Every structure is written in structure tokens, then in C-alpha cells.
Amino acid sequence: FIQTAGTGAVAGVAALTGLADLDRLRAAMAEANSAASAVQEFYASLTDRQLLTLCFPFGDPRQQRVHANWNITEPRIGDEFYSDEQRELVNQILRNITNEDGFERLTRQMEDDIGGVEEFSVAIFGDPDNGRFQWELTGRHLTLRADGAYEDKAAFGGPIVYGHGEEDPPDNLYYPHTKQVNEVFKALDLTQMQQALVPRAPRETAVPIQGPAGNFSGIRVADMSSDQQELVEKTIKYLLSPFRAEDVDEAMATMKAGGGFDSLRMSFYEEGDIDDDRIWDMWRIEGPSFVWHFRGSPHVHAYINIAATATS
Fold it and tell me: Cβ of 51: how many Cβ atoms within 10 Å?
């Protein structure tokens, strides 16, 4: 979403090293969760008809669906189904789960791809009045979540998706992500590059959390030099930086509890190399509790799943 990683978004991460830290972090998030407060206000504003259309039991299968182009419910935010006040609350929720620059780029992506946030849809799983809930927005190239910091052991409340339909890489909003990740590739020696290059990418929606027994491809971060490892850490913080600090902290703490940076692998896929320039447009960072799959060809679809518990 942004050109440079802000230090404020990652403040406090270094001190978070295990599951106990996650528990303390969730408690702090629950106390100061402005997104959750906005969701509660949105929920309180719903009419009986809206409640029947938008609200589902917590754990409904749709809650964890991963796709780059679907609408979770039929009404669009721009429809007469919603009031102006409710549309403003949707925007407030989105502002509260991103930083300022991230929100601006998110808004541009929605405008470019389908005409704005008015064409997206929302749903609520669970009951915002008792703390165990999740608000979800879906549409073209986007799945975002806001929750009540309940005990789910999943950053962002579950898998999220972002993308952009621009097919000329320099004009794609997320090409800076590809450039930053490729800085890691350029820092590798020839033997390491051979380890990191993989002929074909897995199915893009295949982003389960595999746990310690998982089967991962690419080069092990643990086998990199210290300066290369520092570049990997800088890159992951850069990728996370568009989001609110609480979610960044939880994502980093979850990854560290699952084995830290040493547990990660990086894959660069030979397929989909736009212009055959060896700037790898398709790549994946994965470990026992962390998946960031980026399909940059023909345009960007990115899938992020960071959780402490293995999923199917």
C-alpha cells in the first residue's frame, strides 16, 4: 500500500516473542480497538431487514472463504439498502484498520478496479455486543476484516486479500511490494538463487497454515547470512506497514511464536515473469504460522494468512 515502512506501525514488535505476549497484546487491543467500536456502532444502526441480510453465526463457512473477487452479501454499500450514516461508518472502519497512507491507496484501488467502496459488500459474523464477532468487507481484489480481539490466534481475524487490476507493473499500486521482495533475491548468491527459484507457483488460494510439519519450498531464511536476514525482516515489516499497528504487532508476534524469521522460506516463481526481466512478479513467503502469497502476473492478487493454529 505504501512506499516506505513507518516505524510507528512496528513499534513494540521486538518485545513480542511468544504466545503469552499474544494474550497480552489481544487484551490491549480489546481496550483500544477503535475499529471494533465502529463495528459495534454499525451493528446498532441495523434495521431488522439489515440484520437478517448481513448477520450470520460466528463460524459460518463464508467467514473463512479466500477469494480475490466475490461479494459476501448481495447488497452493495452504495445501494439504498444502507443509510448515509452507515456508509460513513464503513469508511470509518476501513480507516481504523489501516494507517492514513494505506487507506488512501486502498481507496484508489477500489476506485480503479470497480468504481469505489460503494461496489463492495459487508457481513457481520457473531454478535458485536458480546465481543466475539467479525466484520468483513469483500469485493473485487479485496477481503478485509475487523474483529473484537477475541481469542482466535489469527492476525487480521483470518485470511485477507488485496490486489489491483493494472497489468503494467510500474503502474500497479503493489508493484513496490514486488520490488522490495526482489531486493532480497538480488542479495542472494548464485547457489542461494537456485534454491529460491521454483518453476511453478501453487494455486493462489492455497494458503493454509501448515504448522511445524509443513512442506515448504524455496530458500530457508535460517540459511541466509545475517545481513540477508535483516533484509528479510525489513521486507516483512514493509509488507505489513499499511495496516494498523495492533494488527502488525499481532502478525509479527504470531510469526515469532511459530518459529520466527528462521522458520520462514522464500520462493520466487519462474512462471509469470513479466517482460522476462528476472524481476520475479510471483513470490511467496511461508513458514509454520505465516503465508504471504503474491501473484503479480497478469495483475496483482495477494493472499495473507498468519495464524498460530494449522488450518486445512
Answer: 11
DSSP label of 12 = T
Tens of pLDDT, residues 3-17:
333 334 334 433 444
Q: Is residue 219 classed as helix, strand or coil in its secondary structure?
A: strand
d(CA 302, CA 142): 9
Q: What is the C-alpha to C-alpha distance for residues 152 and 11, in angstroms, rounded to an integer?
A: 22
Q: CB–CB of 105/1 below 8 Å? A: yes
Question: Whole-angstrom Cα distance, residue 219 to residue 1?
Answer: 26
243 DSSP assignment? B
Instruction: Read off the C-alpha cell for 287.
Output: 513458514
Integer Cα distance of 161 and 302 in angstroms: 6
Q: How many CB atoms lie within 10 A of CB 261?
A: 19
> φ and ψ at 27, to 5 degrees?
-65, -40
Q: Do 297 and 272 form a contact (C-beta atoms < 8 A)?
A: yes
Cell of 180: 522490495
CB contact set of 292 (below 8 Å; sequence gap of 6+): 236, 239, 284, 285, 286, 302, 303, 304
Q: Which residue has the cell 494474550?
A: 23
**Which triple of cell numbers denotes residue 14?**
521486538
User: Count of alpha carbons within 13 Å of 222, Cβ hemisphere only?
Assistant: 7
In 3D space, the residue among 144, 165, 106 whose CA is nearest the CA of residue 296 turns out to be 165
120 class by beta-carbon count within 10 Å (0-12 exposed, 13-18 middle, 19+ buried): buried
148 SS3 class: coil
Q: What is the pTM of this model?
A: 0.88
Measured CA to CA, the distance from residue 35 to residue 17 in angstroms comes to 25
Whether 97 has a pLDDT exceeding 80, the answer reads yes
Identify which of 303, 308, 306 has the alpha carbon closest to the alpha carbon of residue 248: 306
Residue labelled with grid coordinates 522458520: 263
Q: How far is CA 32 from CA 8, 27, 38, 287, in A?
A: 16, 9, 12, 30
Rg (CA), the chain: 19
Task: Give the tens place of pLDDT for each residue, 195-207.
Answer: 999 999 999 999 9
